[in-house]
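thought: fold this chain, then report.
action: predict
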Amino acid sequence: MREEKLKSQIEEKAKQIKLLKLVRREIRKLQEKKSRKQEEENLKNLL
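observation:
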């Protein structure tokens, strides 16, 4: 019984970590997109 509980806790943690990694990847993508837009704006302002 105790082993099952431990196993489910570990699986739950693994899911959370997976989600966290996905979220971080998405945030990084958004930040890259944002900084690219910012660079484009800066270039336009220079012209």
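thought: worth noting. DSSP finds one helix and no strands in the chain.
final: tokens above.
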